[in-house]
Design goal:
Length: 237
């Protein structure tokens, strides 16, 4: 009669088998490769965004100051004026102007439509990546939150030569965005074209720096908060 095979004896305190470290290592490598590929796609997306757009030489007659998909930060029931801002998230002057604009939004938001348009400047290494990140957040209903986050943190990530795309991705995570959808949007050609559309319109309309403001279609200087408040007050009479 055949003897039953006994299970291998194990010493007390010693697990019957060691963890499959090779399997864990393979999983870690695949996760790392996935992240690196994703970051590579984001970097490529930003790099191609910096190239001249086919619409960059758009005639002024074809340019639109406001488009249907332009980001409106106020929605007055009865609009008496529009204030359009072309901005760059790596621009210190834009960051300085932001609290002024937010204050005026509270004061005039029931009569004036405040509108933002992207205009990342070539001299700012990460401004294009920031615009893509904000637009990706906007696609998930978090434009205002990401816009604010960019300006709040600009002193930490601005004026750097290395890519800050990973930093912007952490912002998306902090805001609770779907990161897979965020990554797809950042690398989508349609997102790049969305930003390029703003650049092309701005260039055709004579925008050369940021922030640049248009009040009811007329480019205006921004010298002081009181000067802009006075212009808005006159526009809504």
């Amino acid at each position: 009669m055949a003897r039953k095979q006994q299970p291998p004896k194990t010493r007390p305190g010693i697990p019957p088998s060691l963890p499959d470290t090779a399997k864990k290592t393979r999983i870690f490598i695949w996760v790392l490769l996935t992240v690196l590929i994703g970051l590579g796609l984001i970097w490529y997306s930003v790099f191609t965004l910096g190239k001249p757009a086919p619409t960059a030489d758009r005639p002024a007659a074809e340019a639109q100051l406001v488009r249907e998909d332009s980001h409106r930060t106020t929605s007055p029931v009865t609009e008496k004026a529009q204030l359009v801002e072309f901005l760059d998230f790596e621009c210190e002057a834009c960051r300085t102007a932001q609290p002024i604009i937010e204050e005026l939004e509270k004061e005039y938001g029931d009569r004036v439509t405040f509108i933002h348009r992207y205009f990342p400047l070539p001299a700012h290494r990460n401004s294009a990546a920031a615009a893509l990140a904000v637009e990706a957040a906007a696609q998930q209903g978090k434009y205002q939150q990401m816009y604010t986050k960019m300006f709040e943190t600009e002193p930490q990530w601005g004026n750097k030569q290395e890519s800050q795309a990973l930093v912007f991705r952490t912002f998306a995570q902090e805001l609770g965005l779907d990161l897979a959808a965020y990554d797809d949007t950042v690398t989508d050609d349609r997102t790049k074209e969305r930003v390029k559309e703003d650049i092309a319109d701005g260039t055709a309309l004579g925008v050369t720096g940021t922030p640049t403001f248009f009040l009811n279609g007329t480019k205006i200087p921004l010298e002081t908060k009181e000067q802009l408040r006075q212009l808005l007050a006159e526009a809504v009479k």
